From TrEMBL:
It is a multi-pass membrane protein. This is Heavy metal translocating P-type ATPase. One of its GO terms (molecular function) is ATP hydrolysis activity. It comes from Haloarcula japonica (strain ATCC 49778 / DSM 6131 / JCM 7785 / NBRC 101032 / NCIMB 13157 / TR-1). It is found in: Cell membrane. NCBIfam families: ATPase-IB1_Cu (TIGR01511), ATPase-IB_hvy (TIGR01525), ATPase_P-type (TIGR01494).
Amino acid sequence: MGTTHEQFNVGGMSCSFCAESIEKAYSRTDGVEDVDVSLAHEEVLVEYDDDLLSEVAVKDTLRDLGYTIRDPDKAKRYEQQQAELADGKRRLLIAGGASIVVAALMGWMIFVMGRFESASPAMDLAALGLALGTMFGPGRYIKQKAFQSLRRGIFNQHVLLEAGAFAGLLGGLLGLFVFSSFPTVHFFAVSVFITTYHILSEYTSLIVRTRASQAVQNLLDLQPDTARRVSDGGDVEEVPLDDLDVGDYVRVKPGENIPVDGTVVEGESTVDESVATGESIPEEKTGGDTVIGGSVNETGTLLIEVTATGEDAFLNQVAREIEEARAMKPGIIQLADRVLKYFVPGVLTIAALSFLFWVVAPLAWGAAPNVQRGAFAALAVLVLGYPCALGMATPLALIRGGGKAANRGILMRSGDAFQIFPDVDHVVLDKTGTITVGEPAVSEVVAFGADEVDVLTTAASAEAFSEHPLADAILEFVDEQDVEVADPDAFDSVTGKGVRATVASDDVLVGKPGWLSDEGIDLSKGGDDIERLQGRGLTVAGVVRGGDLIGLIGIGDEIKADAAETIQRMRDAGITPVILTGDNERTAQAVAEEVGIDRVMADVLPDEKREEIGRLQEAGHRVAMVGDGINDAPALTQADIGIAIGAGTDIAIESADIVLMGHRLGGVMDAYEIGNESYRKTCQNLATAFAFNGIGVAAATTGLVHPVFAMLAMVLSVSAVLANSFAGQLLSGEDVNTEFALDERTGGDVSDGRAAAD
């Protein structure tokens, strides 16, 4: 027994107030040692003493607050999200219908009957029925949340909303049974309207948060469901992965995914380990070398001894890192929340004092208590104090920024990205597929005693039957050069080293310099060039014809055309770029020098990438991480802002806050600039909203503001925020044709990017 960690996926969270309420509730629970809430991923991580608390008690705290705990199975979790969405839509339709009817009653009274006060008992009772039906029907769940929050001494948006709703209900009841001069229908209408608004805001938030993502499961699907287990007697049996134990032997054929982490016992092959390292050029594997589950065995058959299974396996560790990083991701306190922390209890206090003042103060000058004026004052304060415009100030600015970003091929998946981008001072970039294209390509050809075309023709002819990725790079380059290639008369592949072939009666070798040297080839004339090409991080293939070295081909991962320009834009903005890669130090340094990056961290595994991001954050830096691979996912989740290249893997995209459609690296700085602009709009919107709320609450304390006018003022404040967010866009005629803009800016790969993002 001792400290236990429990992680839950939570339904029903709609804003940062929800996250704060959960944190406060757990912080006031004996036995809870720490709690982290991720609103962006709807996850809660609780650390508690299991001698004082049970798992059931920990879960009951969430349920008592009115939140749901979703199934850990991701497919079932998505079904639950869809059910929540259907429930939210049903609530909205019912509450929206009640709002339309009560608005019609109000309109009839004001514009047809020309009066504000009670018009007829039938209309009053109809409005009462609508108010009770809305509050205790679709709005019942809000009351549960408000009650449980109040019981724990937590003042949040649910408490403020219910205070306004019950105040409207009380005012209507006073008008119905005590004061005939009260605007009964309008008081009841307030209860209906603010309940409906809250249901609408939560439903909108749920739509944004609900998506059909099963990316972590897709990650685990990289492993086959079964493996070929080889017994001591040599018999081969296909068994489920769960039946494998450490020390078992499995056989993997060419083209198959390696099912387990292990050590090669027999065979030679090239293995694509980009799943772990991000490196696009496959590794040569032979006896004694380690392999990683999820990697792709390309050329030879391998016999592998199992070294890790279950939760200890690499892909399961990555999945766990992602889940933990989501829940532990540093929280971002939005600007509105800093004020709303004090705003809610302040409004409740002012409403109560306003009512007491107009009931008690008249006694001081010999007048009777003015209950009606006190009721008007309290209700108007609660209506004008309800943070409607405040709640919309940030989302509207983000919606505008999101639309502008979409026109530049950028998908903003998290509002936090807008809030935090102005403070980012470090951008950490993966190398392969982020700064580079992510595929091996011929970078340089060196000829000795022959021209480059002759070197290429000889190499391509020898490699014509090869299935090695480096051979594919040579053949693709030759195709682009319109060089004719003849099939070899004889061909033999030497796994992990190169090829032997007969081309036009000449014996040809193409392969690693070390292998060529072992074959007795004199490489002295190419020594300096070999060292130079390897210094640039290139893989060198020597081309030998008739026993003589005729050329060298340097193959590497091509740097993106806009990489150097993007790095310079970062520097100009005061941002420090850093390379963080699983690739080797030499290759990483070569890329860094070419694009202008000073700091490089190489040979870093996925969990180490996340740790490096955490160290930068602990040092006080705000960090954005840019990557595209599975090995980047934990770091993307840990970073303050995770940015995925849209042409990358699903798991990287799911872990990110921002997705760049296509391959452009320049979208990072485009997103940064849009984020800064949106943050400025947010500040302007909040200033406008607070001005309306501040002036409105002050005026409401006089008791002279009719509840109808209070509602109109609330609508006006929202309209002002809406105009500030979108008027400039409409006046400037910004293009809203996202399809065209994406196609223009991503080089025509919209469909690929969108498919990856979906």
